[in-house]
């Protein structure tokens, strides 16, 4: 309900914009959320099924690994079947990049310095230009070039930035500028320092990530700390949360990070208490059930679920829909921050779901009406 206050405003770093398929990255475009499939790319059906789940979770861009000739043989079926741009993940085999570009990849994840001669880099650039592909340079602390490790002794921010600049120069020497860059590390401090240094040096879009972050809980925490710091500072044009979890979970966590900073709005933002002995209903299980049952809602709105009246009314005033626990199995429901009615414990879960779905439909209808009104006003002005 409440708008972003001035003290919450984030002044985003000014980067130039590139296109990844039809999705703008950088400039004033929304920060995009990415993930990566983990199915064998050769299995087109399984890969597309996973892509669909990620799309449903809100993924803006999806990366698919292309390590072998077999993985690119039917790559065009994947790019045609997806509804979002597909990034082909390439490491050392430059021919995979040529094949993927010809088969519809919107972007190539490749480090030009890793694929051999200048002639090979030129071939990849020609393929990218001919097919309208962007390129993502992906520097990783775990795979830094040997000469940089010898020079610096260990992975450090300066080494990651120097590697990125070396790869950038190879593309610029071939008059290619449609690129974004990542300087990832598993160490939060190393990654944040590298990104901050790079942001002062280049104007291209930056792809954020804390690589090999860990499982769902640990990896979410590390990613939120690392990327959250950078995003709060205004750095970052596209993100991927790297978790040892299903890729659609990466997407959901990515959106939660952006939503918590007011940088994206998608789906239901749940405000809930940790629960205590004062709770009038089982807050933990209620929130878990609501998150599951409301995962299909894409319309941005807010829901507060508080177990008692200590903080409940104050939080409910700030959300579209709210509920606070009461005595004798009766709980107060708030609509648009105002007390409205009571609901019994037995009916509470279904009731909240119905209220949220109804509110989402109302918001969607108002957005459509506003769009029609804007169109009519524009026609009248003509």
UniProtKB/TrEMBL annotation:
Binding-site positions, [4Fe-4S] cluster: 273, 276, 308, 315
InterPro entries named in the record: Dihydropteroate_synth-like_sf (IPR011005), IspG_bac (IPR016425), IspG_bac-typ (IPR004588), IspG_C (IPR058579), IspG_TIM (IPR058578), NO2/SO3_Rdtase_4Fe4S_sf (IPR045854)
Domain (IspG TIM-barrel) ranges: 15-254
Catalytic activity from the UniProt record: (2E)-4-hydroxy-3-methylbut-2-enyl diphosphate + oxidized [flavodoxin] + H2O + 2 H(+) = 2-C-methyl-D-erythritol 2,4-cyclic diphosphate + reduced [flavodoxin]
Pathway: Isoprenoid biosynthesis; isopentenyl diphosphate biosynthesis via DXP pathway; isopentenyl diphosphate from 1-deoxy-D-xylulose 5-phosphate: step 5/6
Entry keyword set: 4Fe-4S, Iron, Iron-sulfur, Isoprene biosynthesis, Metal-binding, Oxidoreductase
Coiled-coil blocks: none
UniProt keyword NADP present: no
Any one of the GO BP annotations: isopentenyl diphosphate biosynthetic process, methylerythritol 4-phosphate pathway
Top-rank taxon, per record: Bacteria
Cofactor binding summary note: Binds 1 [4Fe-4S] cluster.
Record GO terms (molecular function): 4 iron, 4 sulfur cluster binding; 4-hydroxy-3-methylbut-2-en-1-yl diphosphate synthase activity (ferredoxin); 4-hydroxy-3-methylbut-2-enyl-diphosphate synthase activity (flavodoxin); iron ion binding
The keyword Zinc-finger is annotated on this UniProt entry: no
Gene3D superfamilies referenced in this protein's UniProt entry, alphabetically: Dihydropteroate synthase-like, Sulfite Reductase Hemoprotein, domain 1
Pfam family, one: GcpE
Matching HAMAP family: IspG (MF_00159)
Protein name: 4-hydroxy-3-methylbut-2-en-1-yl diphosphate synthase (flavodoxin)
Native source organism of the sequence: Alteraurantiacibacter aestuarii
């Amino acid at each position: 309900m409440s708008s972003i206050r001035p003290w919450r405003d984030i002044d985003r770093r000014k980067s130039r914009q590139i296109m990844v398929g039809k999705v703008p990255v950088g400039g004033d475009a929304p920060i995009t959320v990415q993930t990566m499939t983990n199915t064998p790319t050769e299995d087109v059906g399984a890969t597309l099924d996973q892509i669909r789940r990620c799309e449903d979770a809100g993924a803006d861009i999806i990366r698919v690994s292309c390590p072998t000739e077999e993985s690119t043989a039917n790559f065009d079926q994947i790019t045609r079947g997806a509804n979002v741009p597909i990034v082909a993940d390439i490491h050392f085999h430059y021919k995979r990049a040529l094949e993927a570009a010809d088969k519809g990849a919107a972007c190539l994840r490749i480090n030009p310095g890793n694929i051999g001669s200048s002639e090979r880099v030129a071939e990849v650039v020609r393929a990218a230009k001919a097919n309208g592909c962007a390129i993502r340079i992906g520097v990783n602390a775990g795979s830094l070039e040997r000469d940089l490790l010898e020079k610096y002794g260990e992975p450090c921010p300066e080494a990651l930035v120097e590697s990125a600049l070396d790869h950038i120069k190879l593309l610029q020497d071939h008059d290619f500028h449609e690129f974004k860059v990542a300087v990832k590390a598993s160490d939060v401090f190393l990654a944040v320092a590298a990104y901050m240094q790079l942001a002062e040096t280049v104007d291209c879009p930056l792809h954020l990530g804390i690589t090999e972050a860990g499982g769902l809980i640990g990896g979410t925490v590390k990613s939120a700390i690392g990327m959250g710091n950078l995003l709060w500072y205004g750095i970052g044009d596209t993100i991927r949360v790297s978790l040892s979890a299903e890729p659609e979970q990466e997407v959901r966590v990515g959106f939660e990070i952006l939503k918590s900073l007011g940088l994206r709005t998608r789906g239901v933002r749940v405000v809930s208490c940790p629960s205590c002995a004062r709770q009038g209903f089982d807050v933990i299980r209620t929130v878990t059930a609501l998150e599951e049952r409301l995962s299909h809602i894409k319309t941005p709105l807010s829901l507060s679920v508080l177990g008692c009246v200590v903080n409940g009314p104050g939080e409910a005033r700030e959300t579209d829909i709210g509920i606070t626990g009461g005595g004798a199995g009766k709980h107060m429901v708030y609509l648009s921050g105002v007390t409205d009615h009571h609901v019994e414990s037995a009916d509470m879960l279904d009731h909240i779901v119905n209220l949220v779905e109804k509110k989402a439909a109302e918001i969607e209808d108002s957005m459509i009406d506003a769009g029609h009104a804007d169109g009519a006003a524009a026609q009248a002005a003509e």
